[in-house]
Specification:
The protein has about 425 residues and is an alpha+beta fold. About 35% of the residues lie in helices and about 25% in strands. It has 13 helices and 17 strands. It comes from Cryobacterium psychrophilum. One of its GO terms (cellular component) is membrane. GO terms for molecular function: D-arabinono-1,4-lactone oxidase activity; FAD binding; L-gulono-1,4-lactone dehydrogenase activity.
Length: about 425
């Protein structure tokens, strides 16, 4: 493990790996469930990385252009830290996932997306980035330099080089008015297409073995909108005690006594209750999650989501499984990134989970069959069982991406077993 603090040190590490015939990978926060960041040779931890020389203004890890609202940030900065830095400049990310501990480079490389039928994932907010490529030189990719590489480099799976800085198009700070409530699952599925298209940020969680779904609707408001921030004490009770402490106990009990999972699921679904609050966008988007689990997520054409969820419900009933974790359903607008799960189509996301003490494979493989039948694409950072031959048919620009990889990394300096499986040798 190396922890370079400068771009020059990253370059030297890549050059040294090449001389030794070793592969080299950057690792972020270790949030991915797949082996996408595993290093068979040299591993680089970029959390201490500063911006390259020549980036004007700001501090060691962030530079802000107030006129354009474009922000350049070191690739190893976490989203959590970035949102705090942006707030100090009156800026925010357009959209954010429900976890903010990933590094910026890791989040865009794996396709972190959040939810919002009219909003795209984090990688779509990238307007430029700098790569250390296989020979150790710097390659700047942006709307004015090597723009033809942007559709590949913005979401590159770590296969094209080491991302040392990223320039993001940001927006003025805003707040979210959040409404969370328990509703009937059938009614939620019937209205999913309309709600995901018309609301700013809509998602829901279905608790297997129940007819209930927890819906979350977040509406964007300007930072000057009326509405006080919620007290930290009620949010702590909801997010830490109920969502994490109590739910961990529920999962442990369900693992020990599977027959208790259905009544525990009904209890969890009703215990969440309804709540309404207004807070800064980053505090509403991201939540604390300390219960350990394994996850698989598939991106579907949005119109196929309701039927896919119904099929998963029928599958669980038919197999008699006891599933303690809810199924999460989100949405995103189409984008033009070659390996984005939302590439070329308005998208809905279906995520399934299993508690860390349970074997997920039988459940995940069966759900994956349903997702594939509905045109699904797997999340690059979450468990799935697909390979390059299967994925090529699901991405119109799959071979275009491989051509860029051949150009930037012909010796596969940045490859590992996972990338060989999903991209080919």
């Amino acid at each position: 493990m190396e922890r370079p603090a400068t771009v020059g040190a990253v370059q030297r590490a890549v050059q040294a790996a090449a001389r030794a015939g070793l592969r080299v990978k950057a690792v972020g926060s270790g949030h991915s469930f797949t082996g996408i960041a595993l290093a068979p040779g040299v591993q680089l931890d970029l959390h201490n990385l500063t911006l390259p020389a020549g980036v004007a203004g700001g501090d060691a890890v962030i530079s802000v252009d107030a006129e354009t609202a474009r922000v350049t940030v070191a690739g190893g900065v976490t989203l959590h830290r970035l949102t705090r830095l942006l707030a100090g400049h009156g800026l925010a990310l357009t959209n954010l996932g429900d976890i903010d501990m990933q590094t910026v480079a890791g989040a865009i490389s794996t396709g972190t997306h959040g939810t919002g039928g009219r909003f795209q994932g984090i990688a779509s907010q990238v307007v430029a980035l700098t790569l250390v490529v296989a020979d150790g030189t710097l390659l700047r990719v942006g709307d004015t330099e090597h723009a033809d590489l942007l559709p590949a480099a913005r979401l590159g799976l770590g296969a094209l080089g080491i991302i040392v800085d990223v320039t993001l198009q940001c927006v003025p700070t805003f707040v979210l008015h959040a409404v969370q409530k328990t509703e009937d699952l059938d009614e939620v599925l019937e209205t999913y297409l309309q709600r995901s298209a018309s609301g700013d940020h809509f998602e829901f969680f279905w608790f297997p073995h129940t007819t209930l779904a927890l819906t979350k609707t977040n509406t964007r408001l300007s930072a000057a909108a009326p509405g006080a921030r919620t007290s930290r004490v009620p949010r702590w009770i909801d997010d830490e005690l109920l969502a994490n402490g109590l739910y961990r106990a529920v999962c442990d009990l369900g693992t020990a006594i599977p027959a208790l999972v259905p009544p525990l699921a009904r209890m969890a679904a009703t215990a969440t209750g309804s709540k309404e609050f207004t807070d800064s966008s980053a505090r509403v988007f991201a939540t604390s999650r300390t219960v350990r689990f394994r996850e698989m997520e598939y991106a579907l054409p949005r119109s196929r989501v309701p039927d896919a969820v119904r099929a998963v419900r029928a599958l669980i009933d038919a197999r008699g499984w006891r599933i303690s974790f809810p199924i999460e359903v989100r949405c995103a607008a189409a984008d033009d990134l070659w390996l984005s799960t939302a590439s070329g189509r308005d998208t809905g996301y279906v995520s399934v989970h299993r508690y860390v003490r349970e074997d997920p494979e039988e459940y995940f493989r069966a759900v994956e069959e349903i997702m594939l039948e509905h045109g699904g694409r797997p999340h690059w950072g979450k468990l799935h069982y697909q390979d390059a031959d299967a994925l090529r048919d699901r991405y119109p620009h799959f071979d275009d991406f491989r051509a860029v990889r051949d150009r930037l990394d012909p010796e596969r300096r940045f490859a590992n077993r996972y990338l060989e499986r999903v991209l080919g040798p």
